[in-house]
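Re: [ENG-882] Designed sequences occasionally contain unexpected residues at chain ends

Forwarding the minimal case from QA. Structure tokens:
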């Protein structure tokens, strides 16, 4: 019970401070993994991202549901998801009434101007950690600067797939394909080539 409450408190904190949308929850999820490795590992985070990006809905909510279910089944999934969305819901309720009045305020504009690059930085750092986990299964570092073991189990198959899809989404004829096509192709390639 204590662990479930601590998990919910961590997701409440994530919902309260993860400015920038669903991907901004990744640094908080990574921190949870560092602080509580018995909850989930770095490999679990990569799996969470894969599942969350492959299913409908916001990534942060999908990740909260995944972790809650992984740890405590359906009740855990419900409670962690609720814990994540509660602070966001309360903040939006509070802001909605006053935002129109203060949206042109110089200080409010400055706050939002400062939040944007910070959110992008958090997302980029988390994305880079996920990239290392996906392409270098030997990566066990708690930060992107701890590269111990990064060459131990280098996944050339994952790197090739990453490069092909990265290039494909930039090509004019393939650019307009729906992301689910790339996800489905990657899933099939993973099965066929036994990633």
């Amino acid at each position: 019970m204590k662990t479930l409450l601590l998990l919910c408190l961590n997701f409440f904190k994530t919902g309260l401070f993860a400015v920038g949308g669903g991907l901004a929850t990744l640094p908080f999820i990574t921190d949870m993994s560092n602080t509580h490795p018995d909850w989930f590992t770095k490999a679990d985070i990569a799996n969470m991202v894969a599942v969350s990006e492959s299913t409908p809905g916001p990534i942060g909510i999908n990740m909260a549901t995944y972790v809650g279910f992984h740890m405590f089944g359906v009740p855990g999934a419900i409670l962690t998801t609720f814990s994540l969305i509660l602070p966001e819901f309360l903040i939006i309720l509070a802001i909605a009434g006053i935002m129109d009045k203060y949206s042109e305020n110089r200080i409010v504009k400055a706050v939002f101007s400062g939040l944007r690059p910070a959110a992008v930085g958090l997302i980029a750092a988390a994305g880079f950690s996920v990239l290392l986990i996906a392409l270098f299964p030997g990566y066990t570092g708690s930060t992107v600067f701890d590269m111990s073991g990064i060459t131990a189990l280098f996944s050339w198959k994952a790197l090739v797939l990453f490069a092909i899809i990265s290039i494909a989404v930039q090509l004019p004829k393939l650019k307009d394909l729906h992301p689910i096509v790339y996800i489905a192709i990657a899933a099939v390639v993973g099965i066929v080539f036994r990633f």
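QA comment: On inspection the terminal residues look reasonable. The chain is about 70% helix and 0% strand. Proposing we downgrade this to a documentation issue.
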